[in-house]
Amino acid sequence: MIAAGDVLPPGRDGGAAVFRKLLDSKYPAGHGGEPDDIGSGIVYLVTDESKFVTDTELIIGGGYAAQRYYAAGICDREAGALLLL
Questions:
Q1: What is the pLDDT of residues 42-76, one digit of tens each?
Q2: From 3, 37, 43, 65, which residue has the greatest number of CB atoms within 10 Å?
């Protein structure tokens, strides 16, 4: 299963710049998602690279879900890794 973060659809005009700025401010990665970000995860899951990946959820969300770990101090933001105790 893929859990995707907010993604700005391609070809949007008008309020897209405002929406993009809002997205970019929400994500530790520094930018909101783009359709290719989600597509890359899908490609990974359908190739042999993921042949042993089972029973999990692939979160493609620019670090948004991990913010609670950053706040609790159990994730190193610079390393982008959980600190296992």
A1: 999 999 999 998 888 888 888 888 777 666 666 65
A2: 37
